[in-house]
Each structure stands twice: as structure tokens, then as C-alpha cells.
Amino acid sequence: MNQDQPGGERQNNKPPELKPGTVKKLVIGVAAVILLFYIGTSSFYTVQEQERAAILTFGKYTQETSAGLHFKWPYPIQDVRIVPAELTQKITIGYRQNGNQMIPVEDEAMMITGDENIVSADAVVTWKIENIRNYLHNIHNPEQFLRNSASASIRSVIGSQKLDYAITDGKTAIQDEVRNRLIELQKKYETGIQIIDLKFQDIEPPSGEVEEAFRAVTNAREEKNTKVNNAKKYENDRIPKARGEAQALIEQAEAEKKSRILNAEGDVAKFNAIYTEYAKNPGVTQDRLILETLEKIMPNAQIFITNSGSDTVNYLPLNELLNKRSGGDTAIAPTPAPTPPPQQTAEGDAQQGKQGDDAR
Q: Which ranges does the record mark as transmembrane (predicted)?
């Protein structure tokens, strides 16, 4: 009996035997649960607002999906690649941004200009994904490709310009040309990247004595521009005034010209009138002109008329006769009698002298 108990205990401790069909069903059930879990976790995916998803069927691009919850066939039938296609991104050339700290990258920033000088150029490139298919299949590392292509564009443009132009007036023109070349590179290699903008932060000589020298050059150029602007301002102020003064002188000269022409025409008319009278009676007119001229030359002269044709000196005291006549007429306050008009007296005297000569 005691010998049977140990044997009986050994028989009761054996695990129950499962039928072959039961084991098979159990394995299939576990596999089905695992498969359903895998399908459930790999067939549904979510796309955020700033993202877009590319669906690859057996590794081939088939479609795109936008924001929301979507279904796909499980891998390896279909695979999904989610990219921030609606997000505007930035990369820096020549430095890296670490919070508020800027870490320079000399290998990217330093480059040679067309006149064999060294310049440091820092830039920021703003971009976004334009074509997901090209972005995923045509370039392996999009960000690195964009950085290399931006650096190559900057070097090619600055390498053809002089340092003086690059650090002063040519910054905007160089910036536009670099942006255009970078856009051409993206189109040429079909990267699917859209270049929104490229802006230089700094284009300057290396730090040290070279920087100080070029800063002095820049200050001198700014001072030159200031003086040029002041000179242009003075020019713009003086030229209108000078033109006004010139116009006033021209108008004054025109007025003087017209005045002299009119005076000359009046003198001609007067001369023509005198000449007409002179032609009628040359002797009288000649005497009158002589007397008028003498009156103008000697307005206070006393005129005596004599006959120089005889041997004796004839003297006619006109002044005494005039003074006596004026004294006899004036009783209270004798005053010298006014001299008659020179023209009439002279003409009368001339006629009397002429008549006396005729009588002789």
C-alpha cells in the first residue's frame, strides 16, 4: 500500500496531455491576434495640419493625403512617409543658431571675391516642400543638399564681384542674384523644394585689422555720399535761382532793346521831318540848327550880331538897350528883363542881319 502511494502521486502530478488539434487551434488563434494587432496599428495613420503624407505601394509613389486620420494597407504592401509640406522652414549659412547664441561656421562663411580678397557672408534661406514625390525620391538628404546648393550659389556670385562692391552698394543686387541661382538649382535637380527667400545677415571682411580698414573705407564712402547729396541739394537750390536771374536779365535786355529801337525810330522820324524842311529851304534850316545847337551848348551866352563884310566894326549894344527898356518899364524894383526865347531871338536877329546885308 505504501509502495502504491508514491506511485499514485507520480501519476497525479503529470500535466494533462493536449490533443494535436487543440494545439494547432491555439497557435492559429495567437497568430490571428498578433496579425490583427499588427494590422490595426500599421493600417491607420494620422496627418497633422502642417503635414502631408505620401503613400508608397510596394515602394512606388501612388498618392498623397492631407491632414486627418487615414487608412492604408499594412506594410510591406503600403508604406507612408509624412513630411512637413505645409510648414515654412529656415536654414542658416555661415552660422548656427543655438537658442539666443549664434555659433559661426567659418568653413561656410569664408569665401574669396573676384579681386582675390576674403569676405565673410552669413545668410538665411527660407524654404518649404513643394513636390513631395521629388522631395522623397530625388534627393537623399534634402536639408544638406539645400545647404550645399545655397553655399555654392553664394560663392559663385561673390566670386565674380569685387570686395568693395560686395560689402557696400552691391549687397542687394548680390542677394537677388544668389536667390535666382538657388531657385535654378532646385528646378534643375527637381528637388521638390520651393525657395521663398534668401537674405544676407552680413557681408563683411574678416575680423581684425582688415575689418577696421574696410570700416574706415565704408565711413569715407558714406561721408562722400553725404557731401555729394549736400552738393546736389545746393545745386538744386542755386540753379533755379540762377535761371530766374538769367531770365530777368534777358527780359530786361529785351525791354532795353525795344526801348532803344523805339527811340531810334523816333530819331529817324525826327530826322526825316527835319530833312524834309531842310530840303524846302536849306539856308533857314541850317541857321536854325546852328542856333539850336548853340543854345544847347551855351545856354547862358550873350549873342551879338555884326556885319563882318565891312571895314568898320559894327557894334549893336543889345544888352544895354534891353536893360534900359526893362528899367524904364519897371519903376519900383528894377529887375533884368527876361531874355526872349533863343530860337525866336536868334531867328529874328538872323533875319534882320540878313536884311541889312541885302540893303548894303
A: 26-47
Give residues with Cβ within 8 angstroms of 336, minimum separation 6: 323, 326
- 209-266: pLDDT as tens digits: 666 777 777 788 889 989 999 999 999 999 999 999 999 999 999 999 999 999 999 9
Distance between CA atoms of residues 267 and 273, nearest Å:
10
Please tell me whether residue 81 adopts helix, strand or coil conformation.
strand
Cell 549736400 -> residue: 230
- Whether residue 63 contacts residue 133, with contact meaning beta carbons closer than 8 Å, is answered with no
Backbone angles phi, psi at 95, to 5 degrees: -160, 170
Collapsing DSSP to helix, strand or coil, 112 comes out as: strand
The tens digit of pLDDT for each residue in 184-217 reads 999 999 999 999 999 998 888 776 666 677 777 7
As a whole number of Å, the CA-based R_g of the chain is 61
**With contact defined as beta carbons under 8 Å apart, do 58 and 77 qualify?**
yes
- Whose CA is closest to 174, among 184, 159, 193? 159
